[in-house]
Please model this.
Amino acid sequence: MNQNEALEEITRLSEELNRHNYLYYVESQPEISDYDFDMLLEKLQKLEIQFPEFASENSPTKRVGGDITKKFESVKHRYPMMSLSNTYSEEDISDWFNRIAKLVEGKIEYVCELKYDGVAIGIQYVDGKLTQAVTRGDGTQGENVTNNVKTIRTIPLSLNGDFPADFEIRGEIFFPLKNFLALNNQRREDGEAEFANPRNTASGTLKMQDSKVVAERGLDCFLYGVYGTGNIRPGHYEMVEKVADWGFKIPKNENRYIEKVDSLEGVMEFIHYWNEERKNLPFEIDGIVIKVNDYYLQEELGFTAKSPRWAIAYKFKAERVETILESVQYQVGRTGAITPVANLKPVQLGGTTVKRASLHNADQIEKLDLHLLDSVYVEKGGEIIPKIVGVNLAERQSNARKIEFISTCPECATELVRTEGEAQHYCPNETGCPTQMKGKLEHFISRKAMNIDGLGAETVDALFEKGLVRNCADLYDLTFHQVVELERMADKSANNLIAGVEASKVIPFERVLFGLGIRFVGETVAKKLAFALKNIDAIMQSNFDGLIAIDEIGDKIAMSIIAYFEDPKSIELINRLKDKGLQFEVEEKAVASNKFEGMAFVVSGVFNAFSRDELKEVIVSNGGKNVGSISAKTTFVVAGDKMGPAKLQKATDLGVRILTEDEFIELLNN
Ligand code: IVH
Model:
């Protein structure tokens, strides 16, 4: 393919992908399968690697992330980002309404909208391309989070139609509940602390350095204001409709996310409707925003120091009930993490009966100063899992017993440990605590790990109770006769189980590594670790510095990996699994060339044509090796923007050749 053809194909693929992205995420009406979409994306990715000069900043490949933001620079807002005046009282809403009615003659149109509970964002488009996305910050200046915002699928990277040349659109980035729950499930499985609520997690996610992680989390965005377009439509409602033509996802009137009304009754009806219905939304809202629709009236009404006079927010009261704390129970996770759970006297809250509330950890119990049989306040406000927010001290009995966090494991009585700086207590008896042992087995056979056909949690329990398996290596010793003896186990199921165990021996190394259930080594970390070090022996021999040099591996994960392999029981387990024939090294991908054979690369900084991961992949697929830190043995350092000065100095001192991105591409092409 020559340059002209490449450019044409890249443009065509980008447009096609943008269209399918829009159909899928904004319209929810996909025309092609996920697989076909991935194939198109892969085609584009490959072309962009081959012809990096045509890889645009706004290519659909940016959706998958990979750009690293080391420091979020501070950016001044072109138009200050104000807030809204808030109230919890309907009376205030009616006062506001009457005030406006007095100031303005004739019938006034109002727009009622949801008040999305997320993080405000201002996104700039120049010539139809997303150029910058900035958080609210202090209202005058915020942080540049462009790389991360580009991964949000409902935010267009390129616009269609008759958009203005340079404008800003504002909205709220939020965590859809489904994705938030999935993230927390994953974290629980990985033995990591769960996030408390979607709003704070959305905010934290937006400020993560690795945009790939942001892409995986699945944030979403609704838009609620446009700046710098001139009054190309008479009012806010019409403008919102207009921006849909350019490719934005807007709140729809048909599901009552937005509504135009002309009376106080209309406003109140909207408030009452959503006060009830909000529990059925797939995202969280914390109130209703009411805006004067007409742009000229908005201008006339103007602003106070902090907020517009033409809008007001009605905030829902977090629903709160009082009930009795009957007991505290402690759950043991598969990595030994102890989670305290409050058992409550059943009470109605937000349409469901609440019997339990999460207490997170010992600090939380201490902070609330909980005593047994306390009358506690329970809320389901911003949190999905009901939460104890306080104690009605007037109701406390004088002899009430303070809740003391347990000191031994409720399942195996081993003394609990708590590492300095960590909130969670752990049961350290990883290989002897029955709950952890069963949890580890269930994790090992789970879909994303070994995915063993014919074996489910119930059977694992039965095998464990019979004493037939204690750890995952024991699964490979099972015989048909042992299995068929189990209750409710027919010949066919027993055969399936044995065949499933046998078949799992070809599962790739990264999934075996994940299946081992090392604390803090989730699916992504296992992949990074496996691909960086290639085999189990290299991982076992790695020291702290070697581990933290790998993408996404920080102090906490590195220490956990080291601790795992320092335990002789882990080594024994791995040796047994090796003997059984499981995969303990990554299968090398087909190589594109061997021009980098024998060369060791250190990749550092931020690149234009590639994400860091892509660049590393190019090195490997051409026979080279990626190493974490610079030494005399390093052949090249590929230096992107913002590479640290210490690394640069070290490379210079050791006489290692430094390549710019362009020089690297040249080396690759010659
Ligand atoms: S309009 C001049 N509309 O609430 C302010 N804001 O305290 C214009 N918010 O920072 C804001 N949903 O992050 C507006 N439908 C909506 C909103 C909304 C959520 C947030 C926004 C703002 C805060 C106001």
In short: The domain at 3-64 is CATH 1.10.287.610 (Helix Hairpins). DSSP finds 25 helices and 21 strands in the chain. The pocket of 2-(butylsulfanyl)adenosine is lined by residues 82-84, 113, 115-116, 120, 136, 172, 224-225, 289, 308, 311 (CB under 6 Å).
